[in-house]
Design a protein that fits this description.
The complex is a heterodimer. The radius of gyration of chain A is 23 Å and the shape is globular. Chain A contains 21 helices and seven strands. Chain B is an all-alpha fold. Chain B folds into two domains: 149 residues, Globin-like, CATH 1.10.490; 31 residues, no CATH class. Helices cover 71% and strands 0% of the residues of chain B. Chain B is built from nine helices and no strands. In chain B, helix 2 runs antiparallel to helix 6.
Chain lengths: 522, 194
């Protein structure tokens, strides 16, 4: 589909599924696990999607329920004047050239059905008023384009009405689940998370083992043994981070950074082996699933009796926390307003959620001169900063990471103005689109980001792309390997950890990746 | 005085490049064509920019009678774009041959020298470039497969495929290690649960 040459009106161009342009559908067992409707074996590239009887009514009823429940959806359906401000702002459009990836047209896929069945003009005039009935073809289009949107919300920055395209995509995905149309890579991590507390399905002993392997590496590199605790009742702070941080490259180096930082300042904290995942694939499924998976955070904080929660480097975790957690599972009035035990800074911004971002926490430590830092240890890195969509656009975390970077590396460079901060380009693989089977699509959707990185690589010799998101770290690595192979990806806390001068450390020869440090080779 | 082909190619460079760019862009929908053609900021329009700059580099190589490398940085970027779009290898390379037609159309009304040798050399350079670009296309495809493979080897596939339970894998590894130390005892095969 993508890259083809439409010669007809958009409504008459069908979505054609071929191996490589769709995410694999959810396994029957996964749909059953979640007790979602219509579990079955099926594939998008087959003509018959084995939809349940009366599926059109199920969708329309589902849409009505959501229009009644979410005022924002009703507003977004009615408000758009098709001014086109968003048209060329989406990374999927810019990377594929497919007009249905223009946010305005992607929304029209749903809006056309809304018009047809829920507005007077549409009921009377049908297609003349931009309406169209719900058909299998429409459903297939929804599936194709609701999964070619990473809910990054760049388009809404440019929308004069502030229409949130992410919420439209979320609604389309919810409606698709009502008839058993979903992807495996979202439902399976969600199932794992529901069962063991994290996407990876790590059980408590495995999580603990993996962290201890990282502690071994830290000891080899620095000579310092760090001893994190798990499920320790009475700890002051509960630390929650994506499980990817303790299992996959390059996230593990970020986790080593956390461990070093907390040891450096003598923080009284604990991991939980149950709230062992920051990420929440419920956000990509349905609001009910998001609420369910998020609930463990406060539940564990209560069980362990901590004062507040510190959160690691994750993207969509922070969107859920910042925008939804308080009303979904709060108020967490059993917790205290977060106060740094090292600097006594009170994080008023987190007074309600009781959860602080690691970059805010670290920036505060640096500002109060509580860290012994040698930025030269990162001299082999020349980073640029990638604002992750969720932390930048959904919670406004723009300056804290930059402040930290200023102090932990000798120099770093910004990408062009229209590709950073609120206007940052997505990694192209968020919202459960980070699956291998759509690798070419991921390379297309990530092109605008990669293109900006290439610019600073050519101009300033940038060799590192730093960020604060687990999915970014994983998927930007693949993106860089293709577009800019000389650029490596790392988390901010890896750079922090690598620059820390630990009390009693041995002479450092390598970085946290066992790479030789400039001027310190043994 | 009649001009050489080389001189005419330089003289008409702007017009020819414009049409050549349109040839590739016409593969996209009309709305897309408009945006990719008119947005000049490379960060707001990476594909349009890469097409424009890649073609310009290639044009210079083809117009120069010297023995220049076809592989240039911007052209490489353009081919990388083609390699991740759903186009056949033949489609990805066909734009190069299109230049033969464009140049003839553009120069037909000009008083160009009937130099058979010049034309032959120009066409030969285009053919050679097409072959080199086919190699670039295949190299980009191969790189893409390596990227996929790298996701597996670095453990990132666990994040990106979600089909394997790491706890089960760790258990399996431990069992295999203990089986190796206890010679003669075969490891019990455990089902890898999702």
């Amino acid at each position: 589909m993508t890259g083809s040459i439409p010669t007809k009106e958009w409504m008459d161009v069908p979505a054609v599924f071929k191996e490589g342009n769709f995410c694999y559908p959810a396994k029957k067992s996964m749909v059953e696990y979640h007790k979602f409707p219509n579990p079955r074996e099926w594939s998008p590239d087959q003509d018959d999607w084995k939809l349940p009887d009366g599926w059109e009514d199920i969708i329309l009823k589902g849409l009505k329920e959501r229009l009644d429940k979410f005022r924002s959806l009703k507003l977004f359906m009615d408000t758009c004047v098709r001014c086109g401000a968003c048209a060329d702002k989406c990374h999927f459009f810019l990377g594929t050239g497919d007009p249905k990836n223009m946010p305005v047209l992607r929304a029209e896929l749903l809006r056309s059905v809304y018009r047809n069945d829920f507005t007077a003009a549409g009921k009377l005039l049908g297609r003349l008023a931009g309406g169209r009935p719900m058909t299998v073809g429409v459903l297939k289009e929804w599936f194709m384009y609701a999964y070619q949107c990473t809910e990054c919300r760049r388009c809404s920055v440019f929308c004069p009405y502030g229409i949130d395209q992410a919420e439209i995509t979320m609604m389309m995905r919810e409606l698709l689940h009502l008839v058993g149309v979903g992807t495996n890579w979202i439902l399976e991590p969600a199932a794992n998370s529901n069962r063991t507390g994290n996407h990876m399905g790590l059980q408590p002993h495995t999580l603990k083992d993996n962290v201890s392997y990282l502690c071994d590496d830290i000891e080899t590199i620095t000579g310092i043994r760090v001893e994190p605790t798990f499920n320790r009742k009475g700890a002051e702070i509960l630390f929650i981070t994506p499980s990817a941080d303790v299992f996959a490259e390059p996230g593990i180096y970020t986790a080593m950074g956390y461990l070093l930082l907390f040891h450096h300042i003598g923080l009284d904290y604990t991991f939980s082996t149950y709230a062992s995942e920051g990420g929440n694939f419920g956000l990509f499924t349905s609001n009910e699933m998001m609420k369910k998976l998020n609930a463990k955070m406060y539940a564990e904080a209560k069980r362990l009796g901590v004062k507040w929660i510190l959160g690691g480097e994750c993207g969509h975790m922070w969107r859920v926390l910042h925008q939804y957690m308080d009303t979904m599972n709060g108020p967490a009035d059993f917790l205290e307003v977060p106060k740094s035990p090292i600097t006594n800074t009170v994080f008023e911004n987190a007074a309600s959620t009781k959860m602080v971002h690691i970059s805010e926490f670290t920036a505060d430590l640096i500002r109060n001169n509580k860290l012994k830092i040698d930025p030269k240890r990162n001299a082999h890195r020349i980073p640029t900063w990638h604002d992750s969509c969720n932390t930048s656009r959904a919670m406004g975390l723009l300056d804290e990471p930059r402040y930290v970077l200023d102090h932990v590396v000798p120099k770093w460079y910004e990408m062009p103005e229209n590709t950073i901060r609120e206007k940052t380009f997505c990694c192209g693989s968020g919202t459960g689109l980070n699956t291998g089977e759509i690798m070419e699509l991921r390379m297309r959707s990530g092109l605008p980001r990669a293109n900006a990185v290439k610019h600073v690589e050519d101009k300033f010799g940038v060799n590192t792309l730093a960020c604060v998101c687990a999915i970014d770290r994983a998927t930007l690595t693949a993106l860089m390997d293709y577009w800019n192979p000389n650029v490596k990806v790392c988390g901010l806390s890896e750079l922090v950890g690598n620059s820390l001068i630990m009390d009693g450390e041995k002479e450092r020869e390598t970085g946290l990746r066992f790479e030789p440090l400039e001027g310190m080779e043994g | 005085m009649k001009k050489s082909l080389e001189a005419l190619l330089q003289e008409k460079k702007g017009e020819i490049l414009e049409k050549w760019e349109d040839c590739i862009l016409s593969g996209y929908a009309p709305d897309t064509f408009y945006i990719f053609k008119n947005q000049k900021d490379q960060f707001a329009n990476p594909i349009g920019y890469k097409i424009r700059s890649g073609l310009a580099e290639l044009y210079d190589v083809l117009c120069d009678t010297g023995d220049h490398e076809v592989i240039t940085p911007d052209l490489e970027q353009l081919i990388k774009v083609r390699a991740v779009q759903k186009v056949l290898a033949s489609d990805a390379v066909s734009f190069v041959f299109k230049l033969k037609q464009l140049v003839r159309e553009e120069l037909a009304s000009k008083g160009m020298a009937e130099s058979y040798k010049e034309w032959l050399a120009f066409d030969a350079r285009i053919d050679a470039a097409a072959l080199a670009i086919f190699d670039m296309f295949m190299a980009s495809k191969e790189q893409l497969y390596k990227v996929r493979l790298s996701e597996f080897t670095q453990g990132r596939h666990i994040l990106t495929d979600g089909s394997i339970c790491p706890s089960a894998l760790v258990r399996q590894n431990k069992q295999m290690q203990s089986a190796e130390t206890e010679a003669g005892v075969a490891p019990e095969k455990e089902k890898v649960a999702g």
